[in-house]
Each structure stands twice: as C-alpha cells, then as structure tokens.
Write a structure and sequence with these properties.
This protein is an alpha/beta fold. 30% of the residues lie in helices and 21% in strands. It is built from 13 helices and 17 strands. It has helices at 16-27, 77-85, 113-117, 124-139, 151-159, 161-167, 169-176, 185-194, 207-219, 262-268, 274-280, 354-368, 425-440; strands at residues 8-12, 31-35, 72-73, 92-95, 98-103, 106-109, 199-202, 223-225, 233-236, 241-244, 255-258, 285-295, 304-309, 318-321, 335-343, 377-390, 410-412. The strands form four sheets. Strands 6-5-13-14-15-12-16 form a seven-stranded mixed β-sheet. A hairpin with an 8-residue loop joins strand 13 and strand 14 (318-321). Helix 1 runs parallel beside helix 9 (207-219). The radius of gyration is 22 Å and the shape is globular.
Length: 441
C-alpha cells in the first residue's frame, strides 16, 4: 500500500493463517491485533498445553509436541520461505521416515517404487496399473479436469475394483466416513502430487515457528491477545469501520480478517447477506481426534512412522509413531504414538472420554503389536478439533468463497479455501500471505 494510510486491522484466530497475515501486514506498517479464544496460539499445529500429569508439553524438558501430528513436505515452498525470512533455517530437519499400510493385520512398507513392486497381495499386472495411475497423477497438473468426477469412480476405473478396495477405498472411508464416495478426484490428486518421501520437521517442534511469528508481530507493534473469545463483529455503515463487541480493544478497526471455520464467521458477523450464509453452509467439514500415548517402548517395531490402516473393521484411520520420525530423547525417552481419526461431531467416539477410547481401541492396537498390553503407558492425552477436514464434493471449486466477503473491509481466509490442496501448515501460511496481499493492493 504505497503512500497510503496505515490501517488498524483486527484478525480473528491465531493459527498460522492469522499469524502470517499479521506478520505480513505488520511489515507494511499496519497496526494489527490478533484475537484468539484459546490460551495458546498455533491452531491445530500448536504445542498444546495440558493439565494432567504434566502442566505442559514443555515439562518434558525437551521439544514441544503438537496436539495433532505434523510435518513439512520438501516442496512446501511458502513455509520454507517464511522460515528462512525469520532466520530459522538452522531449525529445519530433513528426514526420510517410513510410511506403511496395515493390511490383513500385517505392516507393509508403501512409500517407494520398490515397496510397491514387492507388495505380495497384488499381481504384476495390477501393480503396473496402480503404478501407472500414481505416475499419471504425479506428472499431471490439470486438477480442474479431475474435480468433475469422484475419487471413488476414478480409481475403480483406473486400477480395477479389487485393487481399489484393497488400497484406496479403506483410506477414503476412514478419512471421510459416509461422505467418502462424494470426494472429488482433484483432492486425491493433490495428495499424490504433493507427497514427498523426505519430510521436514523443526527442531523444538512447530511451536518454535509460532513463537517466532508472535515475537516478530510484537516487535512490529502488533498485539496477540490470547484467551479472548470474540462473539460479535459490528459494522458501522456510516464510516465503514468495524467494532468488536467484546474485545479488550473494541476498535474501531478499518479492516477485519476472520480465519475461523465457516459457521463461526456466520456467528461473528450476523449481518452477512443470507445468500452468502447459504454459500458458506456448503463448506462442510469433519472434526479430528487424536489419542496420544506415551509408551516405554517402541510400538511400530519395524520403524514405521506413518501407518495407514487399510482395514475398515478398525476403529481408527492411522497410527503415527512420532518417535520413529524424531528421536525419543527429545521427549524424555518416551515413545509417542498418535491414534488418529476424522469424524463428524455427532460420532460416538467424539463424545467418549479418553478412558473409553483406550478401552475401545486397545484390542486393535494389540492386533498391530501383540505386546501392546505389556507396554507401560507413561501418559495419555486426548485432543479434539471440531473442524479439521473439509469435505470436497465434485466441482468444489465453485463453492470456494473469495477472500473479500460481501461486507466491505471484512475478509475471510481459512482452511476451507486452500482447495484443491489438503489441510496443512504450508497452505495456512500461504493463505495468510495471500489475504495480506489483497489488503495491500
């Protein structure tokens, strides 16, 4: 914004989108205040504080740990550019962890051409079809042509019914539940296109990046208000200014960025036009749940980091052994696994206590590792999020709202708009950069 006035801007949400937008706008000289209802920043990638056993993750006297497992791909250019700008390059680790699938209660590595060739449950012809389909998705850049059909139909046609039911259908069902047959192929393309065998992590955890962003925002004169839930935004038509009904700083603000789930935007800004509210209602999503177990010994003893569960009879989608990726010494010697699910809010598992889930999942964890019941569980935690995985039907690009809402000076930038890409820190950062550019132009 060359030779223009510097603005007072409010941002709702201190995830990576909100913090990145605040940082970028602060660089341009604007006065930014970020409001976050939780008592920590970072969103789904935060080093979450807990109350039982340890007062916080940091009581391990080691690295922070995310409430939901996270990593970077080596092609996450927006994230790496920001990390470089913030002087955190020395914190980046580049590793090659092992990804496997669970099929008929056995683990099979499934992340390299060689592992596909040696998978014993497919014929050479079927492996060739699967490899050709994956190669096509890797090389193809025209995702819009793929969003007109469902992933369910595309994979059945390309690799055949039996290969699809063995490899991809269980993962789609596990990820999206009853919605799995609606998911379009562009979303699946993005999963294949983006994936890299090498993964990156930050020494100290993702909270290192969160803390650095907050430090820089404050250095620019901005503010990050944690533990402040905003319930209503009032627009003042006569002056085009915005007023926060219950904030520690009520305004007026000249610009507002909302980074929350879609329905929260509707609640915050009650005078949104009815047709826009109806449009937002198309942005459906599932919640996420992670049961985090701290064990005295390794659980996935073959060294697998990420295990996809290709068996619909299991009550969870994945088991991620974080300490098969990052050395257990950084977490007091504990071996840490995430037992993960994406679920609608009304699902019984989203209502269960940690103890109930442990009882429910325990027999299945014992099928993966027969020694599970003999392992000492040092601690366990249950983390949930109400909106974590957007549901993306055919032609979903037509459902994505622009960053500018119908109300002047009110902008919406959220995980729902990173499509066709899937949720992730890199795209949250990119979204924050994008909305800042829109305000600056």
């Amino acid at each position: 914004m060359k030779n223009k006035e510097k603005l007072k801007i409010a941002i709702i949400g201190a995830g990576f989108t909100g913090l990145t937008a605040a940082y970028e706008l602060g660089k341009a000289g604007h006065k930014v205040t970020v409001f976050e209802k939780k008592n920590f920043a970072g969103g789904l990638a935060a080093g979450i504080k807990v109350k039982e056993g340890f007062t916080s993750w940091r009581d391990f006297r080691g690295w922070d740990l995310e409430g939901f497992q996270h990593h970077f791909f080596v092609n996450d250019t927006e994230a790496f550019s920001l990390i470089d700008e913030l002087g955190l390059n020395d914190k980046l680790l580049k590793l090659s962890p092992k990804t496997s699938i669970l099929y008929k209660d056995k683990l099979y590595r499934f992340d390299t051409p060689l592992s596909l060739l040696t998978f014993p449950h497919l014929s050479v012809l079927k492996k060739s079809k699967l490899a050709a389909a994956i190669a096509f998705l890797k090389l193809n850049s025209n995702w819009r042509a793929l969003e007109t059909q469902t992933a369910d139909a595309w994979w059945r046609k390309k690799v055949g019914e039996d290969v699809y039911k063995m490899i991809w259908e269980p993962l789609l069902q596990g990820k999206f539940g009853d919605y799995y047959s609606e998911i379009n192929m562009a979303w699946f393309w993005a999963r294949i296109k983006k994936r890299t065998q090498k993964l990156c992590y930050l020494k100290g955890g993702f909270q290192v990046l969160v803390d650095k962003l907050i430090k820089e925002i404050k250095k620019q004169g901005g503010k990050v208000r944690l533990d402040h839930q905003i319930t209503r935004i009032e627009t003042l038509p006569a002056t085009s200014l915005l007023h926060i009904a219950n904030g520690p700083e009520q305004g007026p603000f000249q610009k507002l960025i909302v980074t929350t789930p879609p329905l929260t935007l509707v609640e915050l800004v009650p005078n949104l036009p009815a047709d826009y509210k109806k449009w937002l209602s198309k942005l459906r999503g599932l919640g996420a749940q992670a049961l985090i177990l701290f064990l005295n010994k390794q659980f996935l003893t073959d060294g697998t980091y990420w295990l996809n569960v290709n068996d619909a009879s299991y009550p969870f989608l994945s088991v991620v052994e974080h300490t098969n990726f990052i050395d257990p010494k950084h977490y007091g010697g504990s071996h840490i696994i995430y037992v993960g699910n994406y679920l609608p809010l009304e699902h019984p598992y989203m209502q269960m206590s940690k103890e109930e889930l442990l009882k429910e999942f325990g027999p299945y964890l014992s099928r993966i590792n027969q020694q599970f019941n003999n392992l000492t569980m040092k601690q366990s935690f249950l983390v949930r999020a109400k909106f974590a995985q957007p549901i993306v039907p055919v032609n979903h690009s037509q459902n994505i709202p622009s960053l500018q809402t119908p109300i002047p000076n009110v902008y919406y930038a959220s995980m729902s708009q990173v499509y066709p890409w899937d949720r992730g820190v890199n795209y949250a950062i990119e979204m924050g950069q994008r909305v800042a550019r829109v305000i600056e132009t």
